[in-house]
Amino acid sequence: MNSALASRSFAASVDDPFYYLINFRFVLDWVGERYGDLLDTRELDFIACFRALPRASQALLVRMIMRKGTLFRISKLAYSEIGSTRDAAESLIAQSLIDDAPELSLEQLFGLLTKVELVAVFKSDIGSANLRKAELLERLKPAFEDTQCFDAWYLESDDGVYALPLMDLCDRLRLMFFGNLRQNWSEFVLADLGIFRYERVPFTLESRAFQSRDDVDAYLHLHRCRERFEAGEPLEGVLAEVPPAFVDNPWLESRRAKLLFMLGQHCERTAMLETALMLYADCIHPGARSRRLRVLERLEAFDDALKLTSEMERAPESEAESQHIDRVTPRLRRRLDLPKLPRQASATVERIDLLLPRPSAPRSVESVVREHLDDVTGPVHYVENGLINSLFGLLCWEAIFAPLPGAFFHPFHGAPADLLRPDFHTRREESFATCLAQLDSSAYLETIRKNFALKQGLQSPFVHWGILSEPLLEQALTCFPAEHLKLWFKRLLRDIKVNRAGLPDLIQFWPDHEDSLKRYRMIEVKGPGDRLQDNQRRWLAFCAEYEMPVTVCYVKWQEGDMAS
Fold first, then answer.
1. Which of 163, 308, 460, 523 could pair with 506 in a Cys bridge, judged by C-beta atoms 3.0 to 4.6 Å apart?
2. What pTM was estimated for this model as a whole?
């Protein structure tokens, strides 16, 4: 792989009127270099043809690719940096990259013209009837079933229509660059990438998301299945096209599982419970077992449901699943006339109640409590999920940005693409173990401080640069015991998607306190009528279990104060 492409400065300046074109050229260069062996003749020819086009023609084609749809009125393709649209289009027409005389159906024509124009075109067919656009279309359909060119439809217009026949090719290239079809071209080629800075991750052939053309085809097939379902195609037809499990490609299997999970949820909503049960049983997507348990309850298959809870208890996929089991099991045992299980004692979380003056101007309750509790010897910070996640991200930076297959597709990733997959930790288990082992000595302090300085401002899924000042960082490193950091970080790794959230709102430090285990406390703030959420309860229970100083602060406003 050409290291020059991977290491050069990527983003074009938005001061350049052709910055979107420069960025698009980078995409083609990147895909051509990184996936050249997976491209067919048509795709390679397109890249070569595009490079040979005049700049104005390249720019016009990119503008069309970025827009919605595949049909464009010439009058709507006006860009000052391109100049004459028709002149720029000549090379595109000559190379069959666009079609300047596409056959249009009546529906397509309606998508291109305004109602005023349509009334002018079809006046003799509709008379003076004052119809809405949709009603006009329905009235005209029986008489205009054939397709014809724009000029034939609209004789009085000097406008025209260009069609873009290569969107399937562009979608494949877009997939190979982004690693998904969720992001569109404009997200990249129109972005001022200079706003953000990204970690430089080494790219090798082994770290590619797609190792064969079959991988790309399989992804596109799964995407088309989803599109067909979302377009309203009958479920039976979509299910028939869902491929069997990808046993040798965990990344593709996660995509398949996500599709099955979505189809299973649809079946639940439409009371197709047996089909939902079948789909969830064949699905590794997080939460599928909990959904399966709910379906068994709805089917009143209580014996099977209880057996499933036992299976889930032996190897829960997450704390959320364990919490669900704890709630469901007593209900199932009642249904089966089984004796109650003894209740497990839970650790107690400290509670404080505050009666405070209602603020005269709109303010968050967290900021009011922060100000009330703040003290010179015990400063209070509003950090919510930001601080502990940031410390984790700084300590484990190397493991998080390891260049594994399916993790990074291009140089603009702020996070690994597999971050929220269940195997994120296991794929990097050795690297994370090395990072966390630093907490057994003072080595972690140097690593966190070093990465805070060296990685400043780089995009990260964990580090919240906006809240992480150097004074806050130093207070945290002084007051947080290393053993507490290790426990928090291990919990994050058990379920990153869920456990990155739910941490207490405030942190209070006492840097000069003599007892190393009593130099901080975390404070979850609840205003009037506010309740603890499930992920907050789990974090609080976890901290209480390990005797970490955590408090829930319930606030009430003093009577008689004006509402904010």
1. 523
2. 0.82
